[in-house]
What does this fold into?
Amino acid sequence: MRVGRFLANPLLWVGMLFAVLLLRMGELRPVLRWAFPGAEPVIYQRSSFLTLFLSHLGLVAGASGAAIIVGVALAVFVTRPAGRDFRAMVNALATVGQTFPPAAVLAITVPILGFGARPTMIALFLYGLLPIIENAIAGLEGVPRGVREAAAGLGLSPWQQLRDVDLPLAAPVILSGVRVSVTIAIGTATIGSTVGALTLGTPIFNGLVTNKLPFVLEGAVLVALFAILTDMLFSRVERWLQQGAKQGDQ
Amino acid sequence: MIEIDGVTKRFDDRLVVDHLSLSVPAGGFCVLLGSSGSGKSTTLRMINRLIAFDSGSIRVGQEDVRTVPVEVLRRRIGYAIQSIGLFPHWTVEDNIATVPRLLKWPQSRMRDRVTELLELFRLEPEIYRRKYPHQLSGGEQQRVGVARALAADPELLLMDEPFGAVDPITRDALQAELLRIHRATTKTIVFVTHDIEEALRLATQIAILHEGRIAQFGSPLEILERPASDFVSDFVSRQGLGLKLLSVRRIGDRVRAGETAAGEPLTVDTSLRDALSVMITRRAERLPVCDAEGRNLGVIALADLIR
It folds into this structure.
């Protein structure tokens, strides 16, 4: 029964497919040779897919981690009495960050920071900030008035109100913003390859430039599976959080 | 217990509370009664400094509230509100133990206190302590809200229309429980409502507020019998005055000692109104009366109610 449910879990199958492709892409060589005759080599080999994935993961984790910290901190600030006046400004800045295409951010930052991972990280950070800020503000403002008044009236300090009441209650909404932001960042990180960052986009752009369709396919499939897998993991955590809030139901 | 002295509060240019002075003795049950915008809620929230006042002073038990650090002050004063504001992600036990936890009580003492309070509100401790707020009915939630306000055994309890959002039957039960608890614990209570019947039932003193000022301050009986102004007399509404008078008078001083009657006895602190109600439902003109310990005191008769 439990084994059955475990096996029926799509997360398991997507995860396994991703891991197998990541580590054993070479096994597909005969298939790719048959599908793309004359395109030798059919497997991207300049770096291993595992290396590309780890570098990609590092970029996304760094940029999203920074966006989460900065985004939530800004949302907390503008929902406190002291920061209320800055709310419109923060919202406007985040929106500008979102409308600015990541490619344009790269064009501006590369001359300043040089090629490599750093301009990519900045582009991802700016691009990922908006969904986090917007959701964190919505989540914090969604804490019922009565709950906030009771917390203050019972004598919780402003810091205790934030830590024990506001953030836990806003967590599901904040998390769905993080989910959107991270999933977008995984896809967007591929363009970092154009400025020399090592990502799963590297074989894609290499394949486009050298006209090697199998490379494009390999990179694209891995990026897509990476994004899907991450999204599934987040939805797992979200469901778990919601159950946490209603655990008394059973 | 509470001395409010010439307190004034403006919101922008609007004068909300205007040189208001009020004194509530220890153990008193003071109801701030008024329509919306009368300043009653603002006055209440100035006592625990959820709202800062512009001038005047408020003392709670000899201490000026502005000389005490605000969180220390609030942890000393119980606070219950209409929207209850239970923390939805905490169990009933954790909700009730909010202030004891802030005061760093030991675990065992908190646990015992939660048990005691749940029993006080007639909520079976072993069933209710692990429930979450969304699993409770409105009345149960409000009981937990009041229990939470009482958790650290504050001398003073502030209540802002706590029973405003529950159905009439539950409200009636909650009022009875609050009266019982007030008598049992001799806490000082300041209670805001716009409901005259509720005020008459609960208060030892009523302050009727109008445009940020006190229109009259006195016992329920004084306010019904000798309204200080046309405003007060309109507000308490002469319509149904007789029934209101019945509801603030107790049967105790009208008992015919030494006589007997059949049926379940009423206690001496029953209101004349409740006594009348029982007579009507039982179709009886005479009812036996007993004291709080159940000792027979005599009889109350229909004619005694209108004396």
Observations:
- The radius of gyration of chain A is 22 Å.
